[in-house]
Fold this sequence. Notes:
- By secondary structure, the chain is an all-alpha fold.
- The protein is built from 21 helices and no strands.
- The chain has one domain (about 1-430).
- Helix 13 packs parallel to helix 15.
- The radius of gyration is 24 Å and the shape is globular.
- The two termini are about 40 Å apart.
Amino acid sequence: MKILRRFFLSVSVIMIFAFLVRMGLLYYLQSHGRTPIVSVLPFGYETGRIGRSIATGNGFSSPLSVPTGPTAWLTPIFPYLLAGIFKLFGVYSYTSFLVIVSINNLFSALTCIPIYFIGKRLGGLSVAAGGAWMWAIFINAILIPIEWVWDTSLAALMAGFVLWATMAIVDSRRVKDWIGYGLLWGAALMTTAAFASVLPFIFGWLAWRLLKLRGRWIQLPAAAALAAALCCVPWTIRNYVVFHQFVPLRSNFGLELWLGNNDQVPDTWAGQLHPNDFEPERHKFSQMGEIAYMKEKQHEAIQFMVSHPRDTMRFFWRRFADTWDPIQDVWRAARWDFRLLLVSNIVVSIFGLAGLLALFREKNQFAFPIAVFPLAFPIVYYVTHSSLRYRHPIDPVLVVLTALAFRYLVSAVVARVRTIRSHETLRTSEASS
């Protein structure tokens, strides 16, 4: 019995199981022809094109289907990873597809590690193992690494490690630990710029905690912030040299804002106008250049938002609902497997909120930094456009909170059953006497 318990509580066992599940699905889909190999979709549109450009010696450029010159559409880590795979196994080759998806599956499986140790710190081994097992079979975490060759699975792993490190760093007063923490943040920002929406809240909380504990509340967070900034400086300098503009992380916010806020948006965004698929916009992008095009789109979006406040709020609400309640109007037409995906996301959203409220109720010291991820991270997508894929980096946090909520629920049920049995025993004993 002890061996079986140790088996189910082992993070290594859970991680290996998670990886095998994902690789098993990949094998099934490939053997049944479910993932067609074309030169765009399996390699993530802009990600694949930038990776191709790097691998063919044209540098970090051309995110669209035509040559458009240097780009800062994405932060560099994942495109360079993909470019290295293209260099070794061929551009847009079937072998490259299998290699990068296998690496995505590994990223997803490794996410069990931070989930486990975050859960252990919040609620002991039961929450640790419960959260990791949930992640191992969580539909999003199984499908997204295969369906999307993007930075999404790596970003989810980075989010887990960032939160785990945040919970650990509050106990350290060593500068080198805080520098390492900052370097982790730098790697996260170079994976996806969306982490910038979380960073100021986390660093503010850390400074506040140190102030309460009479620690070096300025020096230590400043050391971490400097280390994070230094990770981003080479990329920012490159962007300035190339574009003669200050582009700290990514350049494409103007386009994304416009796609979600214009007079042709049906409910969440006007995907049909994306330069990937709409030739007039692609031609304009090529003619104007990336930075000028993005500035124009941002200006158009802001003008629309100012002149159409009711539509803007309606789009915002629809994207909020689409992030947390993806069922909306698609349930009737969805296949059974897609319905399972939708239900799993609803469950994680509801129980994740319950777990978060429980943390605040018991005044857990980590309630605020945990809450920052689901509250702050998706804001940029409410403003631009939404997708379950965009939410995925915070799914590890939601899964931990779900495991915590289940732990509270089970404890409440067990306590209730014991109370009932105790009352019944008392009544029996009174009746017999």
